[in-house]
Amino acid sequence: MAEEEGEEYLFKIVVIGDSAVGKSNLLSRFARDEFDHNSKATIGVEFQTQVVEVDGKEIKAQVWDTAGQERFRAVTSAYYRGAVGALIVYDISRKTTFESTKRWLDELNTHCDTTVARMLVGNKCDLEDIRDVSVEEGKSLAEEEGLFFIETSALNSTNVNAAFEIVIREIYNNVS
Ligand code: GDP
Ligand code: MG
């Protein structure tokens, strides 16, 4: 790819996973450094754009959030269209959300090709005392499926920027 002054990078990244795992809060923590204690369906907002610098290059990360439609198992193909990165999120305090990640991966794979940079995200790692999915379980699933893996807390900010930045860097490496 040509190295030009002022070259623009715009990466579409989708955030998927069961309802209430913290997808919207991961995004609001990343984009605005905000956390919302009340779980409300995001209304009207399709994506947020955050500028990140990689190797001195300005990259616009356009991160898409489901508007709560994952509850109805009806995330549309438009949501996935053009995505070059994905965060597949579960809640470390709810095993069922971890078990669902395989279904989310299947859905991702039917809509996007395998070059999409994919990160398995165990969110709510602040809830150590009611942990229901071990770090090892997360790691080994990620290894099996060829995903990056990280545990995060949107509540206390642990690893939130890192989760997005690792994916963005991988996308950058794929395209440059
Ligand atoms: P979404 O349905 O996946 O978008 O999940 P939300 O972002 O709406 O979060 C669902 C609920 O989990 C809300 O009550 C949030 O306050 C809470 N939550 C989100 N992230 C965290 C986290 O990292 N730690 C804890 N303890 N709670 C979280
Ligand atoms: Mg949400």
UniProtKB/TrEMBL annotation:
<dbReference type="GO" id="GO:0003924">
    <property type="term" value="F:GTPase activity"/>
</dbReference>
<keyword id="KW-0636">Prenylation</keyword>
<keyword id="KW-0449">Lipoprotein</keyword>
<keyword id="KW-0547">Nucleotide-binding</keyword>
<keyword id="KW-0472">Membrane</keyword>
<dbReference type="GO" id="GO:0005886">
    <property type="term" value="C:plasma membrane"/>
</dbReference>
<dbReference type="GO" id="GO:0005525">
    <property type="term" value="F:GTP binding"/>
</dbReference>
<protein>
    <submittedName>
        <fullName>Ras-related protein RABA5b-like</fullName>
    </submittedName>
</protein>
<comment type="similarity">
    <text>Belongs to the small GTPase superfamily. Rab family.</text>
</comment>
<keyword id="KW-0342">GTP-binding</keyword>
